[in-house]
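Collaborator request, handled under Task 6.
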Amino acid sequence: MNGRSVVVGIVALGVLGLAILVWWMRTHPEPLPIASLTPAPSMTGLATQPAKKPNIVLISIDAVRPDHLSCYGYAKPTSPNIDRVAAAGVLFQQCRSQAPWTLPSHMSLFTSMLPTDNGVDNLNKVLAPELTTLAQVLRDEGYETAAIVNNGQMRAHWGFDRGFNSWREFEADTPPGACDQLTDRAMEWLKAPSKNGEPYFLFLHYYDAHDPYKSPPAWREKFHTTLDERGARDLAFANRTPEHNITDPAALENLKSAYDAGIAWMDHELGRLFETLPPDTLIVIFSDHGECFEEHGWTLHGATLDEPDIRTALIVRPPASSNVKPARIETPVMLMDAAPTVLALAGVRSHPQFQGVDLSPAWRGGKIAPRLIPSETKAVLEGRYLLGVTAGGVKAVYSLFDGRFELRKLPDEDRDASASDHAAEALFAPLRQWVRGERFWTFRAVGKGDHEMVLHSPDSPLAMFIPAGLDEERDNLEVSPDGRTITWHVYPGAPGTPGAKRKMLLVQTANPDAAIEVDYKHDGERGLGEVHMGDAAAHPGALPVKLDTTLAPSDPLILAPFDESRPGLYIKRHADPRHAARASRVAPMDDETLRQLRSLGYIQ
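Structure tokens returned to the collaborator:
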């Protein structure tokens, strides 16, 4: 069984729902078998062919949590124009993203694959050439395809331009990247003659509701916020982790109001766009992730799989000629379903790669089979590696760095109910199989003093590196321009003493079996006896030491926090021989991409 079949199976589990999972776990000692994706019969095959292929406008409203939209019940009038589209179409009440940050969430939507499966789960990785996007399918079906984005992480660099006849990206932190300019360009493109009269697919990405919550003064005044962009970003970033909270309720409300003003300005510009679209246009509006405002101590997004982070808006307004009655759908769905749904409404067969399903049966009198809804995050800034599945009113989350499984009851998620709920083991089993499909190295520094590690991958660029417990004021992590060398400088402190922290670095190479070279110094001195390799804690014969697949693998499933007390560097290679290795595609970022990521706070 390979890693992909494990994760695909998580998506497809449960035609009979959660009850069958619980029954299986009670009656079978072995883990639940993971099957290939098999769509429910009502969703198999070619959708009903429309009389004419509709024009399609797909709109991403980045970082908008649905409970801050009026059509989802928000008290403030943030979204009158989106509300009108929702009132004429189908609104999904319980949609969840596959990742709580922009790059993997959007790539998951366009490929209808989990980030783990399409490989774009980290800033270093780009889409492999053999994978197909929604835009490619539509272009091959005769659509004229175009995209206009104020990018953030929506750059051609990662493969988002694949399948688009026209791709235009504008920097989100410059005036040409603002939502009013984006709308002007979209309207200009719509007025231009379509190539040979073909139907069109237009993708628009609006970044304005994303921090720093950009909006003109008039919109900030309307929503009673005194924060400008700099003030909002400084307040949010300084308090983004549970260790640093916004304790003043007025300051928190001020930040939320700045966010609302950004949403409202963007909605106003979308209203201009909607007025130009013919009634027979298929409009799909989605948010790629949400935003946290001190829920469970977190601000901004990307670090958790909590509902404020992964619950998203999804609104489908079919062409007027389809005579679809407005509806609100309570069935849990996910952003991976958007691409198959768009294709079905265009009369196009879904691609065999796609893991999502066509949602149109939900408003046509049919049903969508119960499924586990997966989400994941591998967050570098916050040092988090989380995998999760949601089923009905419960959510299971595995935190790799903590070695912890939790079962949370929705919607509050305030406590771990795994000890008392019979559904826990049924949901934990697929998470175990999921993580065992991963391959990575871990490096952990223990003890007081200065720990310095230099890691070099001579034959393969680094695909991912996530530091856990990094102290931004004392510790340091530097990556070479070619992406092959990491210098990791940390001060863990003596175990058990005040201020001591676990310091851990997770690393993946693009070639999962590539060798890496490691040098290590403690307080400036090399000490072979302080380097502990593998489960056997063997010492190297010399430093630097070359590490490869001859080091016996440790289980990728970490079941307890790291608690070694002996000082030194602990190295493990995590791999499960039952799962095939999955290579990553890595491409170096150009200077402009790096500048944009730094200016938006994604990298230091």
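The cover message to the collaborator said: "Residues 203 and 530 are 54 Å apart (CA to CA). Residues 3-39+373-435 form one domain. Please let us know whether this matches your experimental observations."
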